[in-house]
Design a protein that fits this description.
Layout lengths: L2 H10 L6 E5 L3 H10 L6 H12 L8 E6 L1 H4 L9 H7 L3 E5 L4 E3 L7 E3 L5 H11 L3 E8 L8 H21 L2 E8 L7 H21 L8 E2 L16 H15 L6 E4 L6 H15 L6 E6 L1 H11 L6 H20 L10
Parallel strand pairs: 1-2, 1-10, 2-3, 3-6, 6-7, 7-8, 9-10
Antiparallel strand pairs: 4-5
Helix pairs in contact: 6-7, 7-8, 8-9, 9-10, 10-11, 10-12, 11-12
């Protein structure tokens, strides 16, 4: 493990108020989104869509790193240029999703644990040879009747820590993603409590596995009421509760916190991130950034619809969304920007 290289990569991902673009949807998830828009669910359609993304002019000005899926990191432009090279040439650091998905946790009805540790050391070595410089592993925590259980929290935290240690051993910056899902009727207060408990256990396990905090990235959920909760707090209140929760649980040594969007609308995700930076940026130990998937991609996907004639319009929508989030990192985003 080269500690300085890990530190340098973690810093480079977010230099210039940039963030991460999560384009690591599994083939199944990608196909579902294609189906809803009448796009063919084929390997070529997925390749063409990903080419649209990686060849978007100006994307490297606001995106520091792109998280790829196993199929994507092996794909090429129509002219034969590997996507990894296209990204690097654009100033975007390639990353890779390495977990194999969340599966039912035995003995814990309604809860899941993320798998993928078996054979991970060898897979990481292959991804490094292919040009990846960081990786991602997602754990999912559900709030519901009597859950999450401590068993679920502990199992996922242990897996995240073991993954992170293996990444650093291989020279990859681990993006540690413990996601408390926004599905359900839980309140903002319940999300705060669960998120704090999850983060405390994650960092306890990271310490146990000797993960160097300066060479990792945290990718958490924002503290939000459940999507079907009758009470939906204002943007500033979400911002305050999210940052207060993080201040209680995230060590200052972590260089950056890159939020997932988790099903929020593109506009709300940007507005909430902006409010956090407006209200807190000058007195936080870590950068507050973004690692969005749908909150950046969805407008572009809806414009593209699988049609070559729509590529330019889709790329413009993609880079505009990325720029709005870069503005939110600076605390300069406003709803008025959406009307341009």
């Amino acid at each position: 493990m080269n500690s300085q290289t890990l530190r340098d990569t973690a810093q480079a991902l977010f230099a210039g108020n940039k963030g991460l673009l999560a384009m690591d949807e599994s083939n199944g998830t990608c196909n579902k989104r294609f189906a809803s828009l009448g796009i063919p669910q084929t390997i070529e359609a997925r390749r063409a869509y990903r080419e649209l993304i990686v060849t978007t002019m100006g994307l490297g000005e606001c995106i520091g790193g792109a998280i790829l899926y196993d199929e994507t990191i092996r794909q090429q432009r129509s002219d034969g240029t590997p996507f990894v090279k296209v990204l690097i040439d654009a100033g975007i650091i390639p990353g890779i999703k390495v977990d194999t998905g969340a599966k039912e946790l035995a003995g814990h009805p309604g809860e899941k644990v993320t798998e993928g540790l078996d054979g991970l050391r060898d897979r990481l070595a292959e991804y490094v040879r292919m040009g990846a410089r960081f990786a991602k592993w997602r754990a999912v925590i559900t709030i519901g009747d009597g859950i999450p259980s401590w068993g679920c929290i502990e199992a996922n935290a242990q897996a995240l820590a073991r993954y992170a240690a293996l990444c650093q051993e291989a020279g990859l910056v681990p993006v540690v993603e413990p996601e408390v899902l926004m599905d359900g009727e839980h309140t903002l207060e319940q999300c705060f409590e669960v998120t704090e408990e999850v983060l405390r256990e994650v960092f306890c396990q990271l310490y146990t596995q000797r993960v160097m905090l300066e060479g990792m990235i945290l990718k958490p959920n924002m503290v939000l009421p459940g999507s079907t909760c009758p009470k939906q707090e204002a943007i500033d209140e979400v911002a305050d509760e999210t940052v207060n929760c993080l201040l209680r649980a995230v060590p200052a040594a972590v260089p950056a916190i890159a939020f997932l969007s988790g099903g929020q609308s593109a506009e709300l995700a940007s507005a909430r991130l902006n409010a956090m930076n407006v209200r807190f940026k000058s007195r936080l130990p870590w950068a507050l950034a973004f690692s969005f998937a749908r909150a950046i991609q969805q407008p572009a996907l809806e414009l593209w619809k699988g049609q070559e004639t729509n590529v330019l319009a889709a790329q413009q929508a993609l880079v505009h969304r990325a720029r709005y989030n870069q503005a939110a990192r600076r605390g300069e985003y406003s709803a008025e920007m959406e009307k341009r």
